[in-house]
């Protein structure tokens, strides 16, 4: 078991070469804080499950013909009940390689080109790409800064839905990139609009296990079960981005029927090691996750403490992503480009997250205290030097 202090032993000198995209595509000397992978070691329980399986048998699993998602179904249902007080029907669970694939399949079987998709913006950028590629125009729901958090305008959304062209509410909660956790009142308001306008709700809840402080994750399926498909995975909370395994809970009978009418192998299947890792995470990874959440909770406040004056930041209620506002600094260029060059820190550019992203950049703080401090000191020095030159 890796405890919280051990996670802080990771330094730039000790992290060593890594094969993953985050470090493996970043030139030496630059600190990567862009893609949403953690720097922490994988939970020992997950490592053990994977090595045991690899050492024993990588042949066809016994559950390969067990509908609908093999052992993933029951493990998912157990975990949701334990962590979030929601007991989904295991028989309504389906597995895919990741949430992006699941989203594309759902849009393909349940909507037509030209149907609009309501989506909180700024938002997770692969979803923009999916909607553009599939000709499902976006109906933006702007996230509005308010005090130390974010909100959105339900009345405006209601007016925008009046033309009847929107077929889907794509709900990302907890929200990426702002880290906002939606309240019951907000979710109830969205559910009422979904009912009134006959919307299918696709609820991406992949960050649900990364809640901080007093915030509470409320599965949307507990509010509007008959219209909700829940999309999730163990990959985000347990740092397993490369295992290619996700679970969706299909609470809508018409969607289950549409999916089950598809040819059996047309979309592929979650792989053996992906399922093994996910089941191990959900059943045995709790202590590791709690240690990581302790570090992330500290880190979200450390960002606020060490950011230089002039950078806007609302401490996220969930995730390990800081949505930073550089617009007041008048940098004269894209903030992520400036920081990559002058601070040697790689962030995700704000404009990639769609409307509301200009002037922003997203910082991943899922790393050790020493690395985060070094990263933030570099940002502060680069910005201080730029301000002196103006």
UniProtKB/TrEMBL annotation:
Highest taxon listed in the record's lineage: Bacteria
Biological source species: Sinosporangium siamense
Domain Aminotransferase class I/classII large: 72-368
UniProt enzyme class: lyase
EC number(s) per entry: 4.4.1.13
Cofactor(s) essential for the protein: pyridoxal 5'-phosphate
Keywords annotated in UniProt: Aminotransferase, Lyase, Pyridoxal phosphate, Transferase
InterPro entries: Aminotransferase_I/II_large (IPR004839), Class-II_PLP-Dep_Aminotrans (IPR051798), PyrdxlP-dep_Trfase (IPR015424), PyrdxlP-dep_Trfase_major (IPR015421), PyrdxlP-dep_Trfase_small (IPR015422)
Protein's name in the database: cysteine-S-conjugate beta-lyase
Gene Ontology molecular function terms on file: cysteine-S-conjugate beta-lyase activity; pyridoxal phosphate binding; transaminase activity
Family of the protein in this entry: Belongs to the class-II pyridoxal-phosphate-dependent aminotransferase family. MalY/PatB cystathionine beta-lyase subfamily.
């Amino acid at each position: 078991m890796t405890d919280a202090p051990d996670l802080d032993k990771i330094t730039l000198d000790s992290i060593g070469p890594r094969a993953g995209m985050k470090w493996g595509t970043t030139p030496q000397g630059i600190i990567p804080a862009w893609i949403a992978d953690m720097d922490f070691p994988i939970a020992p329980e997950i490592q053990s499950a994977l090595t045991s399986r690899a050492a024993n048998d990588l042949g066809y699993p016994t559950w390969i013909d067990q509908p609908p998602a093999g052992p993933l179904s029951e493990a998912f249902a157990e975990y949701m009940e334990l962590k979030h007080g929601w007991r989904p029907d295991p028989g309504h669970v389906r597995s895919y390689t990741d949430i992006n694939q699941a989203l594309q399949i759902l849009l393909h079987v349940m909507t037509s080109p030209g149907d609009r998709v309501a989506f909180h913006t700024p938002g997770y950028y692969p979803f923009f790409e999916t909607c553009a590629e599939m000709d499902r125009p976006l109906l933006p729901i702007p996230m509005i800064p308010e005090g130390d958090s974010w909100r959105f305008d339900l009345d405006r959304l209601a007016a925008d839905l009046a033309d009847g062209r929107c077929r889907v509410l794509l709900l990302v909660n907890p929200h990426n990139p702002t880290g906002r956790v939606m309240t019951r009142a907000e979710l109830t308001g969205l559910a009422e609009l979904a009912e009134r306008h006959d919307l299918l709700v696709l609820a991406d809840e992949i960050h649900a296990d990364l809640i901080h402080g007093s915030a509470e994750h409320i599965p949307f399926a507990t509010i509007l079960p008959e219209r909700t498909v829940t999309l999730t995975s163990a990959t985000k909370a347990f740092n397993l981005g490369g295992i290619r395994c996700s679970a969706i809970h299909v609470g809508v009978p018409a969607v289950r029927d549409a999916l089950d009418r598809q040819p059996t192998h047309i979309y592929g299947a979650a792989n053996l090691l992906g399922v093994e890792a996910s089941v191990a995470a959900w059943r045995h990874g709790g202590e590791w996750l709690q240690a990581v959440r302790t570090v992330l909770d500290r880190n979200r406040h450390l960002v606020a403490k060490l950011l230089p004056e002039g950078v806007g930041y609302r401490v996220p209620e969930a995730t390990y992503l800081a949505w930073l506002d550089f617009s007041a600094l008048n940098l004269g260029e894209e903030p992520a480009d400036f920081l990559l060059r002058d601070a040697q820190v790689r962030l995700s550019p704000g404009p990639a997250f769609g409307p509301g992203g200009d002037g922003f950049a997203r910082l991943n703080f899922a790393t050790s205290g020493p690395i985060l401090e070094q990263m933030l000191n570099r940002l502060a020095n680069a910005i201080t030097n730029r301000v002196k030159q103006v």
